[in-house]
Amino acid sequence: MEYVILAVIIAVVAVGAIAGLVVTGRRRKTLPPKSSGAPLPKGGVVAPPTPREPQVGEEAAAPTEEPVQTIEEVQLPPVAEAAPTVEEPPAVEELPALDVPEPTAGRLVRLRSRLSRSQNSLGKGLLTLLSRERLDEDTWEEIEETLLVADVGVTPTQELVDRLRTRVKVLGTRTPEELRGLLHEELVTLIGEADRSLKTAKHEDGRPAVVLVVGVNGVGKTTTSGKLGRVLVADGRKVVLGAADTFRAAAADQLQTWGERVGAATVRGPEGGDPASVAFDAVKEGIAEGADTVLIDTAGRLHTKTGLMDELGKVKRVVEKHGPVDEVLLVLDATTGQNGLVQARVFAEVVDITGIVLTKLDGTAKGGIVIAVQRELGVPVKLIGLGEGADDLAPFEPAAFVDALIGD
Ligand SMILES: Nc1nc2c(ncn2[C@@H]2O[C@H](COP(=O)(O)OP(=O)(O)OP(=O)(O)O)[C@@H](O)[C@H]2O)c(=O)[nH]1
Questions:
Q1: Which of 137, 154, 166, 390 is 20 to 30 Å from the Cα of 269, by its Cα?
Q2: Which residue stretches of 35-118 are H helix?
Q3: Which are the contacts of 299, defined by CB distance < 8 A and separation ≥ 6?
Q4: What is the band of 51 on the pLDDT scale with cuts at 50, 70, 90?
Q5: What is the residue with the minimal CA distance to atom 30 of ligand 1?
Q6: Contact criterion met (CB below 8 Å) for 354 and 327
Q7: Which pLDDT value is given to residue 116?
Q8: Ligand 1: residues within 6 Å at CB?
Q9: ipTM
Q10: Contact (Cβ atoms closer than 8 angstroms) between residue 126 and residue 365
């Protein structure tokens, strides 16, 4: 019996011990993992903590006070505008290709043969006379006459003959090369040095240079304005033309055609309109377009000096409301000789001429007018017209001109 009681006690103790072990093992398994020191996931990005579920018995969080909007207050997103209807692109009008004017440098050399009439009478004529074996008084008189007929003018002719006489005497025997060199030198000296550049560059304040082209009708004024526009375009300038010769609609058409060929805009007014107003508008347009040069063709169809004075004076005054005029170019027809000089004097009294353009030098033996007109007015010849072609206007260079007259 004592053994039975002992066995029961041992059994109870054993069961108790086993039960204790099972409970401890279960508790260990439910312990939360230690958060501290846990390694970061690759890339160093820590995921945001997941919100803790509210537990029963915990206080509910106070509600956030969101303003309640009425239906009227709700802003609706703007209604997308109706997609624009796709318009057909306008038919592209075929524009005529613009001319590319010839470069201005070396034009006189290219056109030298156009001076053939002056070459024969003035250049070659003088050389033949100077090459005579005996230079007697008669020969010197012939030399003088040749110069006068070529319109060199009385005073310059006298000067030249005197210098030639002295130099030929000093020279003694004369070879054709020596004579050519001597005559070249003396003619260039007679033409003289001057600033022949055209003031056509834009001003520092952005205002375009303004060039007035003046002269009587028929001298080639409009043609010269057109050709000069091309010279400027060839030199890289942006040009606006002003057709202030409102007496003849054809003159404005003519100028516009010249402009269109090189992409220069032309400002014109009604036929018979106020030339000063067209000139003013042309400069205004030039400023608006950011042009380098505004070239204004004026009218010369005036029979009285007072009329001319009034009109040209007004054009200049009105244009100068935009700023000073940079060049006033007087166009003269070389074939009219002394008559051209009379016109030049009248114009010089009305406006300050800054340069002369001698046209039609290709059609005359009177190339000496270049010397006479400069002397007469004290204004340099800046350009010469050597034909009716678009690029037959050349900057005047004395040495190249004399070369062309007497040959190399
Ligand atoms: N041979 C030659 N003809 C020229 C030259 N310059 C102009 N002409 C011609 O001279 C003629 C008259 O030229 P225009 O430009 O109409 O003369 P304009 O002075 O403007 O005359 P208006 O417009 O009537 O006032 C035209 O047939 C031109 O082709 C030149 O250098 N050589």
A1: 390
A2: 107-110, 116-118
A3: 217, 244, 245, 246, 247, 248, 251, 275, 311
A4: very low
A5: 360
A6: yes
A7: 87
A8: 217-223, 245, 248, 251, 300, 359-360, 362-363, 385-388, 392
A9: 0.93
A10: no
